Amino acid sequence: QAYMSYSNIAALTHLAAKPGWEITSTLDNIKIWTHEEGDMLSLKVEMQVKIPSHLAFSLLSDFTLRLQWDKHFLTCKVLQPVNEDEKIYYVTSPPMTGHKPRDFVILVSQRHPCKPSEPYIVAVKSVTIPSVPPSSEYCRSEILCAGFQIYSDSDGSCTVCYFNQVTSGVMPYFTANLSGSSKSIEDTALECIKFLE
């Protein structure tokens, strides 16, 4: 378990630090970046939020609250708390046209910064639990690496960066957006900011 949580945090930190991120869209307080490597597309959404970083961290690390702002989450329940910094959740997503609804079993690891210049981290990856096997009702999907880094800008504001390493499993949600036919990433980011503030 210690290794799983370490690798979860390390994978997100590594993804965030990669060179070669390209900015694809800029709104008032939202920037969207992409990073391509082989058949792997990574996404970064940077949001300026007018609340203290520790508050954003406590709201974003509780995944049951995501239903309030992320329409890609249909249900979310805690399967087991691993320790105070780690929980395993079961999440379902609404069906895309012509597809079954998806489900995910994810480990969410959270870390407080050691120094003021470091971010709060909420890292997410899929895990396998024998007690929750895939069912015929859902298409079991995998999250390789996703999560949030939250940097403090001042006492009352912070920068929230959301990352997702997009696999073919979650690709349908993003392709329409990046081709410009949908604004779901921006819409979700705006909902996230509204929820946090």
From TrEMBL:
Domain called START: residue spans: 18-166
InterPro entries to which the protein is assigned, alphabetical: START-like_dom_sf (IPR023393), START_lipid-bd_dom (IPR002913), START_lipid_transfer (IPR051213)
Example of a GO MF term: lipid binding
GO CC terms in record: cytoplasm
A Pfam family the protein falls into: START
Name of this protein: Acyl-coenzyme A thioesterase 12
Organism, scientific name: Nestor notabilis (Kea)
